[in-house]
């Protein structure tokens, strides 16, 4: 794979609002509630086309990843650091199969995943990010969407949308020396294999009690997250969706 055009390195390469997704029983996910992205950098410009800044930022990276690239957010932004898997770091395991990384994340770190989900803002917009906005972010977003009632095929499709942005993500990581020298776009850590996200979906939906059973078993705050889902999911008439 080669870079087809020069990406804009001055802002996020892999950012999107999760509004507009169909949910079971009718209705759509609301805009300006859940945003996913790759990592912000201190010299970035604000993204275009969405309210900014978010009310809460959930940073899934290990603190050692930040270094001089830590961002100072405005004082009214709530920033929480909830590392979910050091094994998903693009600067350490570029050649490791994603299925192996996701397996470890799901089978041994469920409590870390729900700790991040427990931080979602029940009033304002939540931004979830890691380094590339693909693996740690992809797992957290997939679980949130499943809990909200988004169908499995749409969850998988959203995961694969990062393929369209990965060249820009790669360039942002490379120019800021956040990825090992010699790493190419063909590195396993930069791919989005279907079997990796299917593993996540299968573990969550196949649990006793389904997605919500998995969430509770792993330490999720069910009452709080149900409030968040009530904000995120809207009926076709624009009202909060009912269970």
Written description of the protein model:
By secondary structure, the chain is an alpha/beta fold. The chain has one domain: Protein-Tyrosine Phosphatase, Chain A, CATH 3.90.190. It contains 8 helices and 7 strands, in the order E-E-E-E-E-H-H-E-H-H-H-H-H-H-E. The protein has a 5-stranded mixed sheet with strand order 1-3-6-4-5, covered by helices on one side. The protein has a two-stranded antiparallel sheet with strand order 2-7. The longest helix has 13 residues. Pfam families: Y_phosphatase3 (PF13350). InterPro entries: Prot-tyrosine_phosphatase-like, Tyr/Ser_Pase_IphP-type, Tyr_Pase_AS, Tyr_Pase_dom.
**Total separate domains:** 1
Name the CATH architecture. Alpha-Beta Complex
Strand-pairing-aware structural class? alpha/beta
Major sheet description: 5 strands, mixed
The parts where pLDDT drops under 50 for at least 5 residues are none
CATH class reads: Alpha Beta
Protein name: Protein tyrosine phosphatase
Domain Tyrosine specific protein phosphatases: 111-174
GO molecular function, one term: phosphoprotein phosphatase activity
